[in-house]
Structures are given as C-alpha cells and as structure tokens.
Design a protein that fits this description.
166 residues; alpha/beta; five-stranded mixed beta sheet; 40% helix; globular
C-alpha cells in the first residue's frame, strides 16, 4: 500500500487532468492508473468531445493503461480519480481487476462506492477492490463547484425565447 504522500502525488496528476476536462467544457474529472509506482495510463471526461457516454475519466484511464500493457487485466494497479465512481466506472474497475481505488471527493448523487450504495461490497463479484477516499477532496470539490457555478451563470445569461417565438 502506498503512503499518503504518494497518493497525493498521483491525485495531483488526476487533478491536472480534471482541469484539462474543464478547459474543454467537460465536467472536471481526471483519473490515473498506476502499478508499483509506475504510471500506466490516464484519462479525463470526454463525453461531449467524443459523443460517447462511456468516455468517463476512469474508463478512459483504464483503456489507456490496458493499451500500454496489452492486457485488460490490470491486477495490482491502483486507479486514482478525482470523484467517486458511478456504476459504469465501478463495473469497469471490477472487470479490469484493479486492486485499489483512491478517490478524492464523494459523489452524493451517483457515487456507488460509499455514497448511494457500496457496490464493491456486493458478495456476487469475483474480485474485491480496496478503496480509500478523501485524498485532496477539497481541491477536487472546489473544481467541481466552480465548474457548475460557471455553468449555471452562463445559463442565466442565455437569452430566452418565449413560447410564441418573440
């Protein structure tokens, strides 16, 4: 298991990727896959840019790491992500056989690691994922708050058209 300093180092890389997502108008989530201290892959949200609803940061990072290794099984790897994974991403983490998940901020609406449910604790999975939360949570939460605040402000500034077209 890695120290908090190592966790923070990798989470800072994930936060840089979250900033890249935000710069492209995507929800600021970034992810990094590491094994034995070696960087394997990265990803950031790209659903809008790719018109792909599966292009979440975690899935993109898993795809990148699997491509580097030439194997979808990422046994022994740790995935760092700036936001608690959704159902799809948690499923990808399980299927990729990732050993450990470290996430920054909880996702109270769609997070399935500990917020809305505890998907990794379900008995029917043949793979167990250790997880840790809260590494640089404040930094991640602030990015998300700023992003959605700016988005709401833009929406308020958009001109509206009445029902009769005037």
């Amino acid at each position: 298991m890695l120290s908090n300093v190592e966790h923070e180092t990798w989470m800072r890389k994930a936060l840089e990727l979250a900033d890249l997502a935000a710069a492209h108008g995507e929800v600021p989530v970034g992810a990094v896959v590491v094994r034995e201290g070696q960087y394997l892959g990265e990803g950031y949200n790209q659903m809008i840019a790719t018109s792909d609803p599966t292009a979440h940061a975690e899935v993109m990072a898993i795809r990148d790491a699997a491509g580097v290794l030439g194997n979808y099984r990422l046994t022994g790897a740790t995935l760092y992500t700036t936001l608690e994974p959704c159902t799809m991403c948690a499923g990808a983490i399980i299927h990729a056989r990732i050993s450990e998940l470290v996430f920054a901020a909880r996702e109270p609406k769609a997070g399935v690691v500990c917020s809305t449910c505890s998907l990794f604790d379900e008995p029917w999975y043949n793979h167990r994922v250790r997880w840790e939360e809260g590494i640089l949570a404040r930094e991640s939460s602030l990015r998300l708050q700023d992003f959605f605040q700016a988005r709401r402000q833009l929406k308020r500034e958009e001109p509206t058209i009445s029902n009769n077209g005037r």
